[in-house]
Design brief:
By secondary structure, the chain is of the alpha/beta class. 42% of the residues lie in helices and 22% in strands. It has helices spanning 13-25, 36-45, 62-72, 86-94, 107-129, 162-173, 181-187, 199-216; strands spanning 5-9, 29-33, 50-54, 56-57, 60-61, 77-81, 99-102, 135-138, 141-144, 149-151, 157-158, 179-180, 226-229, 233-236, 241-243. Strand 9 and strand 10 (149-151) form a beta hairpin. The longest helix has 23 residues, at 107-129.
Length: 245
């Protein structure tokens, strides 16, 4: 398992050292930074899995830094600040922060939030990246990702919409793994990376699943492949083989 590399950005030397040591003691590689120049240097020099970014960095604004990072980077960002009003939090989320934690905070809670953001973003990246293998075979079906072609066991081609294809790709990349509606929404670029999926977005996923079932299931009302996982979301409940040419 990859050890997460976390960039700790704070101009308070004592707090920066405390957080760096705490994260290192809890299985992370923690790298210190004090300003935007340090962030740029660290991002250029190696992999960064998450940035812990203080909102007030002397003369620099963490909110403005976050906005500039989002123009070029997809790295997860958790903002940390003594400013804890709803408007302060919304300002952070508005520029692309994945989470916002108010000072003072419990370090164990901070660690839990870091792990949650890492798990969510890694899973979303997996859903997006792993679905690009060349050919998938499942239950007699064949999906050629290079040609974007779906063939039934009888050999006829099934036409899918762009969203239906993206859903199928995500499911094929994660067979027998229950996926939440939120994870599916992120993979399909329906909701970005918000904390929750709205009711409307959840219904959109349900409708999309129904459409895909109608095209690949022998009996869409009693699906064998794309099943509902009660209390979670959906699971592609058949084995999938992937071939790269």
């Amino acid at each position: 398992m990859t050890i997460p590399r976390i960039l700790v950005v704070d101009d308070d030397a004592e707090l920066r050292q405390m957080l760096t040591q705490f994260l290192q003691q809890n299985g992370c590689i923690a790298l210190p930074a004090t300003n935007e120049a340090d962030i740029t240097k660290q991002l250029a020099s190696g992999r960064i899995d998450l940035i812990l970014l203080d909102v007030m960095l002397g003369d620099e604004s963490g909110v403005e830094i976050c906005a500039r990072l989002r123009d070029e980077q997809a790295v997860p960002i958790i903002m940390v600040s003594a400013l804890s009003t709803d408007s302060d939090r919304m300002a952070g989320y508005a520029v692309g922060a994945d989470d916002y934690i108010a000072k003072p905070f419990n370090t164990d809670l901070l660690l839990a939030r870091i792990r949650a953001v890492l798990a969510r973003t890694r899973r979303a990246s997996s859903l997006t990246h792993r679905r690009r293998r060349t050919t998938f075979r499942f239950n007699g079906w064949r999906y050629d990702a290079k040609r974007d072609e779906v063939l039934s066991p009888e050999g006829y081609q099934v036409s899918l919409s762009r969203r239906e294809t993206m859903l199928l790709q995500s499911l094929l990349a994660n067979p027998r793994i229950p996926l939440t509606r939120q994870e599916i929404a992120i993979a399909l670029d329906i909701t970005g990376e918000k904390e929750t999926t709205s009711d409307a977005e959840g219904r959109a996923i349900d409708v999309l699943v129904g459409r895909l079932r109608a095209k690949i299931e022998q009996d869409p009302k009693a699906p064998e492949m794309l099943r509902t996982e009660r209390g979670v979301g959906y699971v592609f409940a058949v084995d999938v083989t992937a071939e790269e040419v």
